[in-house]
Amino acid sequence: MPHFDYDSADRDIIGFLHDVADAAADTIDEVSNWDFSGERDGQYSADVVVDDVVVAMLEAAGFDVLSEESGLSSGALPVTGNRLLAVVDPLDGSTNASRGLPWFATSICVVDRDGLRAALVAEQSGSETRFAAVRGGGANCDGVPLRVTPTTNITGAVVGVNGAPPADPGWWQTRSLGAAALDISLVAKGALDGYVDLHDHGVWDYLAAALICREAGCIIEDALGRDLLVPDAADRRSPGICRPWRRSSSSGGSRDGRAISVPGPPPLPS
Fold first, then answer.
1. How many Cα atoms occupy the beta-carbon half-sphere of 66 within 13 Å?
2. Which is nearest to 202 in space by CA: 163, 160, 230?
3. N or C: which end of the chain has fewer CB within 10 A?
4. Residue 152 carries which DSSP code?
5. Dihedral, 66, 18, 189, 176 alpha carbons, nearest 10
């Protein structure tokens, strides 16, 4: 088993995250019990089974781990020294998985003392689509680089949401797909123009996808202007992610701006 710390190469870290996602996929394929675990509200027995595999691999490789299912299993926050923290949702979209809806993932974000370091969001329902990013190294989907282009038509935007949108949100159509990490990653791919969390999520739900989107050139903010990299696992945030927009010349000049407004612009940690 390899061992990772701050001085490890990014390519090696990403390669290992793929190995972890492979192990999670094999475990999900073997799951037959989709009942609730009884340990906490909304947690499935499958969540616990996949979590055991993912956390064990990460810890054996030297990572501290913060998981949606088991909390902070080792280490402490904030991250200091040569330590690496893996923020994990082993089975993002587990309700989809329990009902046979083919849209769920394993999401892992590696954090070091400088902020977000590397990320992987691995679709696990059979498509094997994988979004990945490294700080300062760009984002990709299945090895194809991702870079969003500005939009000039806000009223024509298709936006992913968590929660019920207002009656007149200001965009064209809404999608609620049920797996936050994958939903947010679709903004980096350009399949969605934005994503708005109208309720809230834990850091494990959005952090990997947020790095992927940032490296693809998206705008990322919390609805209330809070830091998205939170040191308390109990904290919740409401991220908003969108493509940048450029006002067309026909509307009175060209100006950079924000496509889907989420007030309060703290930058995502580097």
1. 26
2. 230
3. N
4. S
5. -50
Lowest mean pLDDT among 10-24, 104-118, 203-217, 254-268: 254-268
Burial of 183 (0-12, 13-18, 19+ CB in 10 A): buried
Q: How many CB atoms lie within 10 A of CB 96?
A: 19
Q: Are both 247 and 175 inside the same structural domain?
A: yes
DSSP 8-state assignment for residue 253: S
124: pLDDT strictly greater than 70:
yes
Contacts of 94 (CB under 8 A, 6+ apart): 44, 46, 47, 104
189-193: which pairs have CB atoms within 8 A and are 24 or more residues apart? 189/131, 189/141, 189/146, 189/216, 190/146, 190/148, 190/149, 190/243, 192/158, 192/159, 192/160, 193/151, 193/157, 193/158, 193/159, 193/242, 193/243, 193/259, 193/260
Whole-number Å distance between alpha carbons of 229 and 111: 9
User: With bands split at pLDDT 50, 70 and 90, how would you rate the model's confidence at 246?
Assistant: low
Query: What pLDDT sits at residue 93?
Result: 95
The residues, any chain, with a CB within 8 Å of residue 26's CB and separated by 6 or more, are none
Q: Domain for residue 24, yes or no?
A: yes
Per-residue burial over 126-149, b if 16 or more Cβ lie within 10 Å, else e, is: eeebbbbbbbeeebbbeeeebebe
What mean pLDDT is predicted for residues 142-146? 98
Q: Could you tell me the residue range of the domain that residue 201 belongs to?
A: 154-258
Any domain includes 61: yes
Helix axes 45-60, 10-30, angle to 10 degrees: 150
Does 254 reside within a domain?
yes
How far are the Cα atoms of 53, 54, 117, 147, 258 from residue 63, in angstroms, in the given order? Answer: 14, 11, 13, 30, 36
Q: Kindly state the tokens that stand for 67.
A: 């998981």
